[in-house]
Amino acid sequence: MSEAASANAPKPSSSVKLVLLGEAAVGKSSLVLRFVNNDFQENKEPTIGAAFLTQKCSLPTRTIKFEIWDTAGQERFASLAPMYYRNAQAALVVYDVTKPSSLTKAKHWVAELQRQASPGIVIALVGNKLDLTNDGGDVSEAAGAAQDESESAQNGEEGAGEEDEVQDAVSGDARKVSTREATGYAEEEGLLFFETSAKTGTNVVDVFTAIANAIPESSLKTGRGTGAGTGQTSLGNRSAEDSRVNLGDRNAATAKEGCAC
Amino acid sequence: MIPWSSFVQKAQSLIDPANFNIPALSSPDHNPSKASLFRQQFRLPDSQNPLQEITADLVLPLPNSSANQGDGSRKVDRAGNTYTGRLHLSERFICFSTQPTSFIPSATASTSTAWTGQTHGTGPSGNGFVLPLSCIRRVERLHSASHVFSLALTTWNGLLNKQQEPNLVPQRLILQLVGSRQACERFCDTLKKGLREGMKEVDNLRTVVTDCYSEYLLSGAKGKGQDGNESDTRQPPDAGLGLIFRYPGDARKLRDRSKMRLWGEYFRENGRNATLIRQPTFHKLIRVGLPNRLRGEIWELTSGSLFLRLQSPMLYQQTLSKFDGQESLAIDEIEKDLNRSLPEYPGFQSEEGIGRLRRVLTAYSWIDPEIGYCQAMNIVVAALLIYMSEAQAFFLLSALCDRLLPGYYSTTMYGTLLDQKVFESLVEKTMPVLWDHLTKSDVQLSVVSLPWFLSLYINSMPLVFAFRVLDVFFLEGPKVLFQVGLAILRVNGEELLETQDDGSFISVLKSYFSRLDESAHPRSENPKLRAITRFQELMVVAFKEFSGITHSTITETREKHKGAVLENIETFAKRTSIRNLGPESKRLSVDDLGTIYDRFYETLYQWEQRQRVIEEETRRQERKRSQRLSMLAPPADTQVGRVGLGPSPTHMDYEAFREFLAATSKWAVADSPGPSGKEPSSGKSALWANRRQPANHEFMQRLYRKWATNPEEGLNLQNVVNGLARLKGSPDIMNNINYFFDLYDDSGNGQVDREGILKISEALLFLSRRGFEGTITATPSVENLNSTADRDHAENSLTTDEKFLGSVSAFIRRCFEYADPSHPENRKADQQDATAEATEKLDSFAIGDDDEEEDLIDVDDTKPASSPAPDATAQTAKSATPESNSDDHNRSTSESANPALDPNNPLHITLPTFRMVVLADELLEQFFESYFPQSFHLSDHPHPAALAASSSMSSNLTTFSNLGSIRSSGLAAGSAPVAGASGGIVPPGKGLRGVLDNIVSDGIRMAAEVKKRMDEAQRDLERNALSREEDEDEEDDEDYPRRENTAAAIPGGIPSWGAGAYGADTERRSIVRDADRDLLEGAEVLGGGKEERTSLLDGKDDANHAPRKVSGSAASAKDDGSPTARDGEVISKLVEFES
């Protein structure tokens, strides 16, 4: 990591085009709304074509300005999607943890992106509506669990999934897609993986931060610094109550970074 | 089946064969029909057709003078405005427009829509009227000095109310026809007829009109003088949610009251709703914005949806009650969005508003299932519902989807994408600098503009302004959306030139929209100028600066981009669906999948088209009957089936599947009308060049049932891909054999019974009847090495097809030999015979091979390919002649050999047996290894499996090439399939080929015959059971072999072959024998029973016993040496499939 080398240079800011894809009503727009406004609306107008929003995400080493394209989820809008994921550097493929078909659709989107989108696109698989499951009840705990899971996704462990199934068996919550299944898939395809709740805010910011960290420096449009660490481990420190990205990073923002390489 | 195929034939006869892909139906892109242009111009329902047209002057009474004019035939001199234009008559409407029209038969989109260009926004119909004939109360002929025909029309205007309006002057307009007497009379005759019909619809008119706020407005006006909203005792008609939840915007600021007053005046002078006459004020009144309570009604009128409602006023309610309680995908989707449609409007926070929205969207999804529900429709309908009743919104939505926004909400949204392309190209044309900037900074315009079009600016601009755009849009059509869009960019041009990315581009526009109500010139000294809002400025720019954007501009630009857009969508759809086909599909190459995809949908498309033609035909016969539903259904001249255009059928039934197979495999093409004419030159292009009548064979049905997850529903792409993937996806011969066996394992218990075996053999003949395309090579290599030169010669002169016939008959025999009896005791008898038969087989080898070659050549030279097949009995008799000798011979030695044939002893073969039998025969082995999978032609690129297969038979190919050279010298016609040529079908005109086709098809017929005889024999058997108990075995024995042999004897059955019949037949038999040898040894090794099949049908054969015996022994003499030579090979094969 190169943060140590950073001096007083202003943090480089770069914009990242991010596209949200997924079945209708899985909560794409709500995720964005939570991320951008830290807000939640029960009745969000369906997205026509796509909605465009921006939000900054401040990392220790740089600031990422997300240009978020929130696409319509209805099946027939799929043919419009290429218009939106064109040149996207990151994608959030969202499914609903209470709806197995939405994961299938998510897989289709991942396949589509892998073939058609710009090479090197960072894809995060996000299971939303965690609040409808048992582990969504307690925010911090759930966040912790999801965190573990996302790590296990990276490490190839499968501990979290078992725990899940035990819970399901006990209380029969609305969860229909096990964490393990999604983790396994994400691992196979090399995706970032999170389970979130746009309603409670669980993990929402973490998703975007993880993406911000995963964007390779080389693909940043206006990035001046080159040596910024892209390690995803820095995520681990971010706690669940960091519901606002700018807030959470205020401390980090003081630590300046420089060009190490 | 039969009615279907006759339907299909009928359909084909209706279709011009020259351009099959373009159905006989008129398509909208090229030369729209005169009728559709006419409907477009006057916004008439699809049921209307132009019947008469004539030049005429429309004379409108002066408002003031009209009051004292009363009725009677007054002089027309005192009339007010006079317009000259064209008068049109359709079944139910009389229309007048000052705009020139050109409904000449050769009219194209550009010429016939050019008039809208000239109007520059004054509306599609110019000044004039569109009157339903039911509105006309009376027509009088006036005596006019200047015109031969001068008609005075009195309408029902204002008279349909229950309450009499005071001071109501009957609306009266005068039409002076200009034209020859005949033309005028013709016009009047048609008008008379129409009027008579129209009288029946006055009740409809009454129903429709009472929902119009204008009626209420005018009738209420009596009491209060002005707009008496609450003054009347009568409840006002439903003018939308706005009546309950207030209309958006500040009514005072919108000057709603004075607008209302102006409209009231206009109505009084020019008629209201259905009887309204368009004069220039009409367009002006619309431009300044409609008053809230009249907005819905005017939208309905200008969009033409009023006429739809008039046509079937109760359709909305009927649809709702008809489908009450039913569920659909669309309904689920609608439910999801109900709470999020204009949620900021109070009406949609209430159950009342949401309920209305739900009902309208649901009803529409039922009457137009192809569209169902598309997000954005919720927003549009929500907006409509603020100003109009549910029924009005329902019909207006229909007009939107069908005519104003064609293809916008379809499942592929091609209309949306197309109009984005059109918009982009208009921007490029009108604002090149901005366009360059956008291109350079990589801003994709459509990303921004798409929601503008899709939701008609409703969720882009503040509602009040969006509704102003809609006011004009409904009058002037889709071009308004483009004009406004261009104006938005123009007004913000400078700021937009400074943006560098999507984000800033969008935010510039966002802030612009939020400030539309502000002054456009806030700093201007001129207070008038200062009063102009940004929105007004926008409208001026849109309709002045971009007045050049006309309907024809849009139509032409759409035409230009349509192909590319559809192609894009189709590529996307194809890519996506191929990718989503699941793991099974990975066994096929991407090219193959693409080919399957294309062919699948092409088949469905063509199938659909033909069915439409049939439907059209039926509809023509019983027209009018289903008028109500067809009225709202998408216009008949939309192209269906093309994937890019929207929902296409996803499942093919068996009939369509046959067509698919016919396009995939040669064997699936029907034999009629004669094999030589059907021979395609080569390859895929030929397969598609002319449609082929698909065959209908039991095998195809089995394939269909095997592939379908639900045969009732049909096959979807996934089923077809999975089916083909299993067949072609692995180079493993075992896989193919297993698959084939499975097809016939009806009970699913791993057994195929006697019937099944025969069916398999039929299928083998069926599949092979068009030759092997070089995938199978009969290699007599072993024989070449091991047997006498004579026999070599004979073998070489046979074609693969002929040999394959032998293989199939051997297959049947072996199957029965090795079949497991369902009763164990039969087994013993089998075994006893094994040895006896073994010797016998050898004896009967290569019967009469001496003269074969010559005979074949003979045939080739002298007989035309299309020699008609004789009837089955004749064949049997003939073929029996040469055969019977060996039958007899065999009978003597294998008398008790055949319990397998005894229907009382059911038997079956298992998969291992089947495999063994297949592998025992070189040709069958090749059949399953290469021909069968390869006979399904997919992409032109050979896929890995096929390559593997062909390499595995490289040795065969080598010998084949040797053989080929021999043959080319021997048989000048070169009828042999050429190895390696994919789809290398032997070209027509080669005599032997045609003969072979006959042979093979005869073979199939004979197989059926055999089966029939088998059944007969069984009946005989049962009859004789008591009296001939002792002989039974013997008789059985004879029965079956006879059958088998008949099948084998087919070639000889063609009388025209003359001497050749004998030769070919015996030749073939010799292969049978030859191939049998393998098995024979195998049989010995296994100790299994074996029987010689001979043809012993009945006593008729007796006469031939002697000669046959002779040739049989002759053959045996020659074949002595060969069996042992193959021992080793056969054993190893047997070991292989035993393990």
TrEMBL record, chain A:
Keywords: Nucleotide-binding
Domain of life: Eukaryota
InterPro entries in alphabetical order: P-loop_NTPase, Small_GTP-bd, Small_GTPase
SUPFAM superfamilies referenced in this protein's UniProt entry, alphabetically: P-loop containing nucleoside triphosphate hydrolases (SSF52540)
Signal peptide bounds: none
Disordered: region residues: 136-182, 219-261
PROSITE patterns per the UniProt record, alphabetical: RAB (PS51419), RAS (PS51421), RHO (PS51420)
Molecular function via GO: GTP binding; GTPase activity
NCBIfam families: small_GTP
Name under which the protein is recorded: Pc18g00620 protein
Automatic annotation (TrEMBL), chain B:
GO MF annotations in UniProt: GTPase activator activity; small GTPase binding
Biased composition, class Acidic residues, residue ranges: 1029-1039
Region: Disordered, residue numbers: 615-645, 859-905, 1011-1061, 1083-1139
UniProt biased composition (Basic and acidic residues): 1011-1028, 1089-1105, 1117-1130
Superkingdom of origin organism: Eukaryota
Gene3D superfamilies in UniProt: EF-hand, putative rabgap domain of human tbc1 domain family member 14 like domains, Ypt/Rab-GAP domain of gyp1p, domain 3
InterPro entries to which the protein is assigned, alphabetical: EF-hand-dom_pair, Rab-GAP-TBC_dom, Rab-GAP_TBC_sf, Rab_GAP_TBC_domain
Residue stretches making up the Rab-GAP TBC domain: 289-477
Biased composition (Polar residues): 873-884
Name of the protein this chain belongs to: Pc22g14970 protein
Native source organism of the sequence: Penicillium rubens (strain ATCC 28089 / DSM 1075 / NRRL 1951 / Wisconsin 54-1255) (Penicillium chrysogenum)
